[in-house]
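Can anyone check this?
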Amino acid sequence: MRTIFFFSFLFFFSTMLDAQNNYKQGYLITNENDTIRGLINLRTDKKNAKSCDFKETEADNSKIYFPGEIAGYRFIDEGRYYVTKDIKIDSIPHKVFIEYLLQGTMNLYFYADDLEYYFFEDEKGKQTYITKKPDDKTTDRGDEKYKGIMFYLFKDTYPVAQEAYKTPFNRESIKKLTKKYHEEMCPSGEQCIEFEAKKEKKFIALKYSIYAGLGFQSYSFYDERLALINPFKYISPTIGGQVNFYLPQSSESFSLLVDLSLSSVKADEEKNYKSNEGYTSKVKFNFDALTFVARLGMKYTYPKGKYRPTVEGGATLSSLFSKSSTYYYETTVQVTPFEKNNYILPETSFLGYYAALGLDMSVNKKQFVFVRVVYDNAKRNGDQLKTIQVRLGYTF
């Protein structure tokens, strides 16, 4: 447990140091309306509204810009556009980077703090915002005030205003209603300009890995009949796969992972010894089984360069099946040697921890070849299973 706690603390501490390093292609818009291309740290909506973390190249140190120091910034591939704007919430002024969603007869912006806000700006520059407090679980009704505000804003075209009472409080629904209003009210028939993140961008993203390798294993039986020939050491092949869950808008360096692997447990030992009384004995024991291991852990991957170091750690559950063994015992005192199948078997399941170090080698932006060294340590009822695996794999 102390080891698991250590790795948990290590990852938490590293996360704080990493400061959500998630740089994407983009550009700044200066107050003189010039553009500077480079890399911008894509973070949460709340953090994107407070500052812009920018650097021109990967080798440069980043610089933080605050609202008003630049006119805005935009992510190229993600399609997200932030502009400096003065807003008021409950009559309190704020200067923020607000996300520009739609430009048209009624401009639409999004801002996130403790709550989410949508700001509407008419052609005269008048701002009106809507928000929604978390639903009260003790009542059947939630905060529906925003629907009445949208009805009033879109009252010039009654069918659109009526739809406000059916509109959920989310980005796509509010954008859709605002676009309809523009289409009804724009005298020239021009389409509104839409700024939005690509729809294929997901809140949670997945990466998959497959691997094969060799395991250098040690099994220690608690059974005192095997005290002279413990532990049993052997080498066995292993195959497996991983699924990494990460938040692309927060950080692609850190991920939660599920690792599943299959290997074998096999050993054959023999020992002769002489007692103090002068008689000799022989013990022979062999056993084999298949081992299925499930690992749940955290992973850190260094985010830059062709060669990227990795660190993993977490908990393991090992299950042994298709078990068999042969126990043989003879002594000069005993006339008939004792031999029995499946007399001493390894435990069926184990709980433990694991740690891993590795190196990812980039094939392209999303695919990697990797090597890993993984250490497992698991116990059950005095039996102990230790493994050091060397893996070669592919991430896609």
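Reply from J.R.: I decoded it. Helices lie at 2-18, 45-50, 145-153, 158-163, 171-185.
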